[in-house]
């Protein structure tokens, strides 16, 4: 598998390659490195915190997670359901706490990711390995194909949403405030926590962890798991990623049916998916509507697969994974 010593030992040569090629994204690279330094400071401060602050940091995991999954992913990137203004505004606030770039930029990159998965035009192309798909892509300049693809798609719907444009206008300052300062202000105001404890634990540490939980969807869920819906695609059904990414790891289904608001085949009783539950609860009180599903399309897909199987047609063979390619090259 790809998580081998190779991945670590090749880091210096990869860095030197990008340094010589002038393709390091210095501002983002420095920012992501700083995020990890303040995150580690947060980890060292956990024992100095009040219990309420730890609970607050914990609750901010699903709150900021929903800003990504329910918000920028399922609503704004894929338009898998429609939401009223108050819901969109609340999701924008949650998304700002998650601080993963503006809704506009995230949705743009994500649409490109779906259209060009596992090619040069995919911002976090998993064929370049676990580390690149996880976070390495943020350390280097975008491949020219990613930039080209981002210009070619239509984002009129995003431009027309005042909530998206409001956040874009205030980017990155509003998101930085919501991610680091706001959690600390709540902790100081309501249970008398020291500001910097709130800043480093409910802000920085929680932020760093939720970033990695989201990145696991691009790395682990693109490399490890089952492929029941599309054997040819990389994205996989990964229950561990679903746990950390509040229901977003059922990724083979999601890439096959990206318009499905549940981003998974089954209901929440058989596939962990608090993001689906959140959308269902909002629909029950009439705040969101028009939830689309991919189940009817899959019924036809499954019938076709079963027919082929009975007729003795073999399933198509999946492309080799990066570590299989490496292994084959070594044994040559
Ligand atoms: Zn994906
Ligand atoms: Zn998606």
Automatic annotation (TrEMBL):
<feature type="transmembrane region" description="Helical">
    <location>
        <begin position="28"/>
        <end position="47"/>
    </location>
</feature>
<dbReference type="Pfam" id="PF00487">
    <property type="entry name" value="FA_desaturase"/>
</dbReference>
<keyword id="KW-0408">Iron</keyword>
<dbReference type="GO" id="GO:0006633">
    <property type="term" value="P:fatty acid biosynthetic process"/>
</dbReference>
<feature type="domain" description="Fatty acid desaturase">
    <location>
        <begin position="56"/>
        <end position="258"/>
    </location>
</feature>
<protein>
    <recommendedName>
        <fullName>Fatty acid desaturase domain-containing protein</fullName>
    </recommendedName>
</protein>
<keyword id="KW-0560">Oxidoreductase</keyword>
<keyword id="KW-0443">Lipid metabolism</keyword>
<dbReference type="InterPro" id="IPR015876">
    <property type="entry name" value="Acyl-CoA_DS"/>
</dbReference>
<comment type="similarity">
    <text>Belongs to the fatty acid desaturase type 1 family.</text>
</comment>
<keyword id="KW-0472">Membrane</keyword>
<keyword id="KW-0275">Fatty acid biosynthesis</keyword>
<keyword id="KW-0276">Fatty acid metabolism</keyword>
<dbReference type="InterPro" id="IPR005804">
    <property type="entry name" value="FA_desaturase_dom"/>
</dbReference>
<dbReference type="GO" id="GO:0016020">
    <property type="term" value="C:membrane"/>
</dbReference>
<keyword id="KW-1133">Transmembrane helix</keyword>
<keyword id="KW-0812">Transmembrane</keyword>
<feature type="transmembrane region" description="Helical">
    <location>
        <begin position="54"/>
        <end position="76"/>
    </location>
</feature>
<keyword id="KW-0444">Lipid biosynthesis</keyword>
<feature type="compositionally biased region" description="Basic and acidic residues">
    <location>
        <begin position="323"/>
        <end position="332"/>
    </location>
</feature>
<feature type="region of interest" description="Disordered">
    <location>
        <begin position="303"/>
        <end position="332"/>
    </location>
</feature>
<dbReference type="GO" id="GO:0016491">
    <property type="term" value="F:oxidoreductase activity"/>
</dbReference>
């Amino acid at each position: 598998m790809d998580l081998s010593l190779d991945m670590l030992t090749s880091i210096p040569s990869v860095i030197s390659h990008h340094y010589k090629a002038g393709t390091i994204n210095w501002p983002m690279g420095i920012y992501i490195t700083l995020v990890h330094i303040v995150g580690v400071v947060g980890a060292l401060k956990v024992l100095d915190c009040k219990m309420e602050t730890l609970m607050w940091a914990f609750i901010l995991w699903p709150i900021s997670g929903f800003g990504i999954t329910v918000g920028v992913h399922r609503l704004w990137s894929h338009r898998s359901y429609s939401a009223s203004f108050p819901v969109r505004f609340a999701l924008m606030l949650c998304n700002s706490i998650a601080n993963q770039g503006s809704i506009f930029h995230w949705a743009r990159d994500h649409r490109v990711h779906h259209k060009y998965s596992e090619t040069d035009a995919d911002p976090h192309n998993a064929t370049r390995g676990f580390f690149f798909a996880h976070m390495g892509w943020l350390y280097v300049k975008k491949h020219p194909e990613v930039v080209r693809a981002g210009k070619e798609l239509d984002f009129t719907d995003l431009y027309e949403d005042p909530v998206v444009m409001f956040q874009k206008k205030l980017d990155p300052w509003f998101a930085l405030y919501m991610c680091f300062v706001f959690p600390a202000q709540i902790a100081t105001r309501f249970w008398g926590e020291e500001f910097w404890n709130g800043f480093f634990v409910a802000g920085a540490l929680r932020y760093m962890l939720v970033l990695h939980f989201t990145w696991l969807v691009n790395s682990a869920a693109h490399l490890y798991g089952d492929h029941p819906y599309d054997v040819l695609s990389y994205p996989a059904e990964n229950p561990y990623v679903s746990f950390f990414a509040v229901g977003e790891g059922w990724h083979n289904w999601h890439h096959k049916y990206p318009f499905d608001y549940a981003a998974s085949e089954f209901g929440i009783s058989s596939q962990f998916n608090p993001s689906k539950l959140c959308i269902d609860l909002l629909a029950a009180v009439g705040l969101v509507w028009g939830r689309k599903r991919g189940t009817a399309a899959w019924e036809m897909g499954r019938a076709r697969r079963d027919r082929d199987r009975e007729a003795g047609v073999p399933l198509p063979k999946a492309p080799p994974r990066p570590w299989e390619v490496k292994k084959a090259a070594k044994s040559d």
